[in-house]
């Protein structure tokens, strides 16, 4: 099973403790959500796991290997990828062109200069499969800048999946997405490969309760509790701190 195993993870900025003694498991196929009030340390935790930040203490292991010394790019190559709260796409390129870039990069062909980018049928077949998986075929040849924001978030998810991760961290995938388009994000998450470990960091509780099989509640850099969605919805302390009695 293994997957991602975090033990005693801590992060301090001087005297400020932002993560403290976090134990966390994300096995293959998991669908886990990380929730908590603003300033709880959710994005800090994701940045520690992906190598954007270095921990002050604790360990991070992936499939039994200590990955603490690996930087962000090396962790991506090992199979840990993360989307961001703000879309980071090439807005002047088409959807198809955006998706082709990470495929080429993953295959070590990102720097080729003297061949047409669309000349490899295997690469094009992979791009086509991503377009189909995220229901983007009708938009494939439109510039990203012309897409609705919810559609841009789908492109970003597809772009990240093109890296072939085994752990996918979705950092507020519904941030900025109109409520009328949130269903696009939910449906895309539901279509992700079954063996992919997915961690969703999100404030949209409707999305969380739709896609998560377990939920971790983070408060002031520490894990308050973890449980199945129905358990979290019934937890009086969670309702008081975060959910405001909106669920259950």
UniProtKB/TrEMBL annotation:
Domain ABC transporter: 4-245
Protein's UniProt keywords contain ATP-binding: yes
Name of the gene: cysA_3
EC numbers on record: 3.6.3.25
Record GO cellular component, one term: plasma membrane
A molecular function (GO) term: ATP binding
Protein's name in the database: Sulfate/thiosulfate import ATP-binding protein CysA
Keywords annotated in UniProt: ATP-binding, Hydrolase, Nucleotide-binding, Transport
SMART domains according to UniProt: AAA (SM00382)
Keyword ATP-binding found: yes
């Amino acid at each position: 099973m293994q997957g991602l195993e975090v033990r005693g993870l801590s992060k301090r900025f001087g005297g400020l403790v932002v993560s403290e003694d976090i134990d966390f498991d994300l096995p293959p196929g998991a669908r886990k959500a990380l929730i908590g009030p603003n300033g709880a340390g959710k994005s800090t935790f994701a940045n520690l796991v992906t190598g954007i930040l270095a921990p002050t203490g604790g360990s991070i292991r992936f499939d039994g290997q200590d990955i603490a010394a690996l930087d962000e790019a090396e962790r991506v190559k090992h199979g840990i990828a993360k989307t961001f709260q703000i879309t980071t796409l090439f807005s002047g390129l088409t959807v198809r062109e955006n998706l082709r870039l990470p495929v080429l990069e993953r295959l070590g062909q990102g720097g080729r200069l003297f061949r047409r980018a669309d000349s490899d049928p295997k690469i094009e077949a992979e791009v086509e499969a991503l377009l189909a998986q995220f229901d983007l075929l009708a938009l494939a040849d439109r510039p990203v800048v012309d897409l609705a924001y919810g559609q841009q978030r789908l492109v970003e998810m597809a772009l990240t999946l093109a890296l072939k991760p085994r752990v996918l961290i979705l950092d507020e995938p519904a941030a900025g997405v109109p409520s009328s388009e949130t269903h696009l994000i939910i449906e895309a998450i539901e279509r992700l490969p079954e063996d992919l470990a997915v961690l969703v960091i999100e404030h949209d509780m409707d999305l969380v309760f739709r896609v998560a099989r377990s939920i971790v509640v983070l408060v002031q850099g520490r894990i308050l509790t973890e449980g199945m969605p129905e358990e979290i919805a019934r937890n009086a302390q969670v309702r008081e701190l975060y959910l405001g009695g909106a669920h259950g």
